[in-house]
Write a structure and sequence with these properties.
Number of helices: 12
Number of domains: 2
Strand order of the largest sheet: 4-3-1-2-9-10
Structural class: alpha/beta
Strand content: 15-25%
CATH topology of the largest domain: Rossmann fold
Shape: globular
Helix content: 40-55%
CATH architecture of the largest domain: 3-Layer(aba) Sandwich
CATH class of the largest domain: Alpha Beta
């Protein structure tokens, strides 16, 4: 047993969709969440920069004595996972493998859509993983960097956002996909609009749920799960505007974020 907190990080508010599932799956765990909002978005940055940011972020979380880290960001999971797992001697869990396994488990015609940031699409990590588990699969991917800005701006319910989403997803509507991986943790916030655009015949896959289940399994196997004594506390840190994070983040998380501390990650 280990009552130290779990660390969770993302480039911004998108990782809160993962945190929400982790809280549901592991309600007795303390959690430290870090949103690198001053440097969002990550999706257009180089692999070298993503690795640098990821190492800095995990070093910050380690100052909070975390026992494991969940990377609640597809871009980091795609571009820096191997490097950070080699750098740090704690369990580090990404979101991509759970998403791949979920997609393989639900597709009926093996035509799988993928929407993600430029960095995740370029990495080909989803495409390779799907081919390994389902060799006859066809992956139709679309880079949607503007979706991150919509969510970070709290604009998901606007007409302008729906127009942008329709434009980006028009190609997918013609491809007869039966499932769609939401390959960025910001994108589940846009699920209602994406559903309207693609229709009821496309099953949307949010890797967050499977990621939380994988985290639970790894904590148990490593014998570092909480014993439930005086736990279930959440601390939030951001590198950017805490007021904006509180407003948008509380809506995504489905509960009020009571206190947020602004930090300078690069100083760690």
């Amino acid at each position: 047993m280990d009552n130290r907190p779990i660390g969770v990080f993302d480039s911004g508010v998108g990782g809160l969709t993962v945190l929400r599932e982790v809280i549901e799956e592991l309600p007795e765990e303390d959690i430290v969440y870090l949103g690198d909002t001053a440097r969002t978005p990550y999706g257009t940055r180089s692999k070298e920069v993503i690795i640098e940011y990821s190492i800095e972020t995990i070093k910050f979380l380690l100052t909070k004595d975390v026992k494991a880290v969940i990377i609640a960001c597809n871009t980091v999971s795609a571009l820096a996972m191997q490097e950070v797992q080699m750098e740090f001697n704690i369990p580090i869990i990404g979101v991509i493998e759970p998403g791949i396994r979920a997609a393989v488990g639900v597709t009926r015609n093996s035509r799988i859509g993928l929407i993600a940031t430029e960095g995740t699409i370029r990495s080909q990590v989803y495409q390779r993983g799907l081919k390994e588990l389902l060799p006859n699969s066809e992956v139709i991917d679309v880079s949607c960097p503007s979706f991150v800005s919509i969510v970070e701006g709290g604009l998901e319910n606007t007409n302008e956002a729906e127009e942008i989403i329709r434009k980006h997803l028009s190609e997918l509507k013609e491809q007869q996909i039966d499932s769609l991986i939401l390959g960025c943790t910001h994108f589940p916030v846009l699920r209602p609009v994406i559903g309207r655009v693609l229709g009821n015949g496309v099953l949307m896959i949010d890797p967050a749920h499977e990621t939380a289940k994988m985290a639970h399994k790894i904590l148990e196997e490593s014998d570092i799960i909480s014993d439930g004594a005086d736990c279930g506390r959440y601390n939030f840190y951001v590198s950017g505007d805490p007021v904006k994070f509180k407003r948008i983040g509380s809506n995504i998380l489905g509960r009020d974020i009571e206190s947020i501390e602004k930090v300078k990650i690069s100083d760690i």
